[in-house]
Amino acid sequence: GNLNQKMADFTVKPIPECGDNEYKEVAWGIEDKDAKFKPMWINRPKVGDNDVRFEMKYCGICHSDVHLGLNHLGGSIYPMVPGHELVGTVTEIGPKVTKVKVGDNVGVGCIIDSCLECGTCEQGDEQYCEKGGNTHTYNSMKTYGHVGGNQETQNFGGYSGSNTVHEHFIVKIPDHLPLDTAGPILCAGITMYEPLRHWGATKEGVKMTIGIIGIGGLGTMGVKQAKALGHTVYAISTSANKEKIAKEKGADAFVVSTDADSMAANANKCDLIINTVSAQHELSHYLSLLKTNGTLVQIGLVPQPHSVNQLPLIFGRKSISGCLIGGIAPTEECVAFCAKHNILPDVQHVEAKDINWAWDQLVNVNKDGIRYVIDIKKSLENKDFLPQ
Predict the structure, then answer these.
(1) At what angle do helices 217-228 and 328-340 cross, to 10 degrees?
(2) Helices (H) and strands (E) in the chain, counts
(3) Prediction pTM value
């Protein structure tokens, strides 16, 4: 009942008049969880001393956009402009900015602010900010003072013409990375790269056996990354028909988790398993695949509790952990790594007028590993789908 109560909670914060420290910008958003996307005017902060303004070229559409937009997790703020896979080109910088210059290609992922003072922020794990959590790129309030403009208004995401962000949270995009593919790397890419990095798989000369559970958009990205790092990769799925795509993406072996023989044949094989499953499941089912000292890392957002027997943990010194995206520096490392190894998400362009269709696809169809990306420039040319 508690979860249902939380899901009923949402906030409506109408957009006020544009302030002196703001400019008006085109965006595409929703007025409430049952609304369709429509063009709207939002207010963006003018450039302050440490800020970077960039024109949006592309914004990826992430499955979590849909969850927040439909208020699946509760606490959504409307009107909402989603999008945390922002990619564009710098048009203006503040006088104290040193990280980028006008004309550079940049991105912004899931985080636009954190306290920058606590222990985790100091060590580059801004996503775990201990002062009050990171500030999500949209559907959040301005919390720590690094986002300019009217401090009483909510943050708006990347389904829009431009944004202004503090330079600390700007991610540099290498010149040779196709811009339309960069957005999903800032979300799906770092979500898979961070556990590989944290558990030692990105270190020189390290060779591991890495399992990836769930061969969707995240899983295929993880298989490509783990393979490019030189590891042996086990793709793990409930469905035998995912074997072909898993092997195409670089998996060395394939485990059908619903098949007892397949599970038994692959016991004690993996040093690290990254579990992308976001539907309700029992994580203890996968512990037999871990070697002694192995770790199972959960990255899918499953609100229901799991039942875990501690005996397999004790008798194999095994660990269950979790991991959330990555800090800004590791995100830049991930983008550079994906650019170097040509690990690109499979993207399909849409225009702003197609966002409703794309969301419907994500809810109902969920094609193998396709990431929908909004072509912002093309969307701005459609005079019929701009705010009046």
Answers:
(1) 70
(2) 12, 19
(3) 0.94
For the chain, the residue count is 388
Sole residue written with tokens 């998400």: 345
61: which strand partners? 372
CA distance 136 to 46: 19
pLDDT of residue 301: 84
Strand order in the sheet with 232-237: 253-256, 232-237, 209-213, 270-275, 290-298, 319-322
Kindly state the tokens that stand for 111.
Answer: 């985080």
Residue-level pLDDT at 370: 83
The answer to whether 187 touches 324, Cβ cutoff 8 Å, is: no
Contact assessment for residue 26 and residue 43, using Cβ atoms and an 8 Å cutoff:
no
* pLDDT tens for each residue of 33-58: 999 999 999 999 999 999 999 999 99
- Cβ contacts of residue 36 below 8 Å, gap of 6+? 30, 356
The tokens describing 260, both together, are 């007892």
Find residue 55's DSSP bridge partners.
89, 162
- With 0-12 / 13-18 / 19 or more C-beta atoms within 10 angstroms meaning exposed / middle / buried, residue 19 is middle
The pLDDT tens digits of the residues spanning 112-123 come to 999 999 999 999
Q: For 180-222, write each residue's pLDDT tens digit.
A: 999 999 999 999 999 999 999 999 999 999 999 999 889 999 9
Structure tokens at 110: 């899931």
Please give the backbone phi and psi of residue 71, each rounded to the nearest 5 degrees, phi first.
60, 35
